[in-house]
Amino acid sequence: MTFDRRIFNFAAGPATLPEEVLKQAAAEMLNWQGLGASVMEVSHRGKEFMALYEEVLQDLRTLMEIPDSYEILMLQGGGLGQNAAIPMNLMPLAKNGPKADFLVTGVWSEKSYKEAEKYGVAHLAASSAAEKFNTIPARSTWQLSDDAAYVHYCANETIGGVEFPDVPDVNGKLLVADISSNILSREIDITKCGVWFGGAQKNIGPSGVTIVIVRKDLMGHSMKITPSIWDWSKQAATDSMLNTPPTFSIYMAGLGFKWLLKQGGVKAIEKRNLEKADLLYNFLDQSSLYENRVTKEYRSRMNVTFFLKNENLNAQFLEQSNAAGLVALRGHKAAGGMRASIYNAMPLEGVKALVEFMRDFERRA
Ligand SMILES: *Cc1c(COP(=O)(O)O)cnc(C)c1O
Fold first, then answer.
1. In what residue span(s) does the Aminotransferase class V domain sit (predicted)?
2. Structural domains present in the chain
3. pTM > 0.90
4. Residues of the binding site for pyridoxal 5'-phosphate
């Protein structure tokens, strides 16, 4: 399938970006800031890039209301890189040897849990694996340890479409949140977690840069084996430029932040995200062909998973939606079915077009 226009792209990541952002990047591609070169071709230590970098951090600080007691790091290696970096940086804070607690609510938190086992004791405090990751275990069943350095959770499970409605209550223990797929989609109180992290490629910009927001007192306790590029204190001391940073990804993330500020910031986009998610879930709930299997209160606003009750229609559904310019609706292979990722940059019109298509498909089925 080839297109001569922009599609509605429901991919989970890399994901759709605002058209204005892409247009600005295109307009500046050959000559950025009158330097006669693109932003990709100039030194990360030059005054133009350094000024851009400061502005990118400031804009993120404004958008997420990040207090000065937190450092913002712009790293490489993705969310998966941080799955290793977090235990290496934080597990030594545990009182009886390296240890952390994990709330496993889907594929991503399970990966974090498995990776952490290499560095210390990873304790499974709760898991919804037996419920096929369609829910979040009841708070009363969580078995938090007394001697863990921190509790890890994934705020939005991108594959299952399961999202924590609030930051979980862990009796004041140190919390670490994977916000790869819902960063900047809703208002959060930064002070409720010690560390927030995620790659940019879902809700911000292209892949290549990983944002780590870390409370300053949590840095400087890393294991000796920690690679320097993932040692938060070393990165903080060098403006995340211990080595060459992903300059183009940082520039694009910056354009994404400016775009979001222009939309009215996180509060305004959260309202729109709710409207989009409600539209889609309300449609699914009244349909006799489609179903969402996630416990209602934990449904993701970003990744809406659904199944066709007649699975024989899956191939037709994908082929026809694709032909209509509604692209990348196939669910992750670990979950099956369908998934519509409706991040910040997906306009309401895209969700309306999807619902119209699905209604029509159901009528014809
Ligand atoms: C995509 C994703 C990851 C993995 O991110 P990478 O940048 O590819 O390493 C981790 N956690 C969640 C919740 C994700 O959605």
1. 7-354
2. 25-262 (3.40.640.10), 266-364 (3.90.1150.10)
3. yes
4. 108, 158, 178, 201, 243-244
